Amino acid sequence: MTESIPKKPLKKGSLVFIDKSIYDGSVEALASDQDLPSYIFEGPGEILSIKEEYAQVRWRRPVPDVWFKLDQIKEYIVAE
Question: Rounded to the nearest 5°, which phi and psi values hold at 27?
């Protein structure tokens, strides 16, 4: 019996990155700087808070925390 493994929901403390293909076509991308740093697409960032359909992400760099739509965020998988 093979059933697909259900996708874990993103939550506070999850390690994430931004899916460039989804972000590029969004309203947020149109309202933001076109030259975003590569580290947001490479990850990992950590979710600090979730409010409705947005998550506050902190990067492991001396930069401000940023809010992104949850549908633009993907879970960062650590390679073993």
Answer: -65, -35
